[in-house]
Amino acid sequence: MPPHGTHRTIVVRGALAVAVLPLTAGALSVPAHAATTITVAADGSGNYTTVQAALAAASSGTVINVKPGTYYGQVSISSAKSGITLQGTTGTATDVVITGNAPASTAGTAGSATMLNLAKDTTVKGLTIANTYAAHDSQALALYAGADRQVYRNVRMLGYQDTFLSWGGTGSSQVRQYVYKSYIEGAVDFVYGNGALVIDSTTIRSLDRASSNNGYITAAATNSSNPYGILITRSTLTSSAAAGTVALGRCWHAGGAADAIGQVLVRDSTLGAHIRQAGAWQDMGGFSWKTCRFSEYNNGGAGASTGTSDRPQISSTTAANYTSQKYLAGSDGWNPVQ
């Protein structure tokens, strides 16, 4: 698997790319810079025919309503567009599809992301974000979530390798994201990064690679100074892959950083038979999974732990300090939890 060590440099290039997008691309009317609501419709019935054109015209706090249709190419939300809401108009995520097929091998990590979201306090809901790159020889992100206090509700994220990245840059700086009642699909490290990321009441589907190794769900690179990394809670882990062939995650020391001591907790969730008993947590890049902070609590289903040493469990006392609210509160008490 290609290394994940160049994220921060690529973010800068992605942000610059956003800054030079033409404001009038795809416009059907005068750009509504002062408007609080913008409508996108591929059939020409809205203010813009492309999501990117609407974002270029939007200001902080704008609500962008996207009518049903398939929208091709990367959508980039720059750091200057804080507080934006991007939402499908029907509330059915399959009705609005934002799709691309760029691999990181040619476009870079951020360049491969179908949605590159670098804006804080954004909400995305009721749509699909897909990266359909089919060669499976490279990272190919659906979503790059690169800013603080982002919320994704009723969002489908489709990819293969590295579907969803939560990334706050190097060091102890951390972004927070909340994913609720959504769907995430992939095969290799498809939920990864160093953010404080809560995935709540969501279906997480591992693709079948027709192998005795059907991949890894998470790859956390949480900085050692941060107590919280990736939390999967009240969710369903599912797959058509053979029993015992999918790992819950592996230990990603991003760029070989010794202080990238990943933290992942899977709790109060239903685990399918595809989850490994032995080898549920895997080594990566020469680092043992035991150097990371991996654990479970109160899971059920055919793939739940049967008590092997490869499946560390936490106590109810410890679990009380590892709730969704604790992961996301930060220093400002942020609480988007449903």
Key attributes of the depicted protein:
32% strand, Pectate Lyase C-like, mainly beta, 6 helices, 16-stranded parallel β-sheet, single chain, 338 residues, eight-stranded parallel β-sheet
The largest sheet is: 16 strands, parallel
Uncertain regions: pLDDT < 50 for 5+ in a row? 5-25, 28-35
Number of domains: 1
CATH class: Mainly Beta
Share in β-strands: 25-35%
Helix percentage range: 10-25%
Shape: globular
Question: What's the short story on this structure?
Answer:
The chain has 338 residues and is mostly beta strands.
Describe this structure in words.
- This protein has 338 residues and is mainly beta.
- It has one domain (66-329): Pectate Lyase C-like.
- The protein has helices at 7-19, 51-57, 104-107, 109-112, 316-319, 324-329; strands at residues 37-40, 63-66, 69-72, 75-77, 85-88, 96-100, 115-117, 123-131, 143-145, 150-158, 164-166, 176-180, 183-186, 188-193, 196-200, 203-206, 216-220, 230-233, 236-239, 247-251, 263-267, 270-271, 281-282, 293-297.
- The strands form two sheets. The protein has a 16-stranded parallel sheet that branches.
- Strand 1 (37-40), helix 2 and strand 2 form a beta-alpha-beta unit.
- The two termini are 36 Å apart.
